[in-house]
Specification:
This protein is mostly beta strands. It has 1 helix and 11 strands. The strands form 2 sheets. Strands 1, 2, 3, 6, 7, 8, 9, 10 and 11 form a 9-stranded antiparallel beta sheet that branches. A two-stranded antiparallel ribbon has the order 4-5. It is extended and about 70 Å long.
Length: 148
């Protein structure tokens, strides 16, 4: 069957993705601008599917959001991540990617609770991975925000 000519396609409005690097991306944890090599974020949604008589739903029944950040380790005088983990410190986290005011995305968590860090190396440089629990305020449902 002849379907005719294919429609014309224009990619003129397509924007190239920006690399995650010093020029395009910043990450601040408790005011410390980290030389970050990895960032992980998990909504932590507990989702259930119920297919019962008269009910066919998928619902979010709980949420425990987490994140982790891997970056060049600091001296204890700069930030004592181990002591902060012992205290269960809750600190602000802000990841921003993009260069322009209208072409950015940010992930923020005002009360990221520091967990027990682990250590490794990358290219012969000591790295630290800090796990985070994203805690809501007393108002609730505000443990993180994604803004563009």
């Amino acid at each position: 069957e002849d379907v005719g000519a294919m429609p014309a396609v224009s990619y003129a409005k397509f924007q190239r993705a920006l690399g995650v690097n010093k020029l395009n991306t910043t990450l601040s944890l408790d005011g410390f601008n980290a030389a970050c090599s990895a960032f992980e974020f998990d909504f932590g949604n507990q989702v259930v599917k119920q297919d019962l008589m008269n009910v066919d739903t998928t619902e979010i029944t709980g949420r425990t959001s987490t994140a982790s950040v891997t970056f060049r380790n600091t001296s204890v005088a700069t930030k004592n991540w181990i002591e902060m983990a012992r205290q269960g410190a809750k600190v602000p986290l802000l990841l921003k990617h993009g260069q322009e005011l209208t072409n950015t995305v940010s992930i923020s968590a005002p009360h990221a609770q520091i967990g027990k860090p682990t250590f490794g190396e990358q290219d012969g440089i000591q790295m630290i991975t800090v796990p985070l629990r994203l805690i809501p305020s007393d108002a609730g449902n505000d443990e993180w925000a994604i803004t563009a």
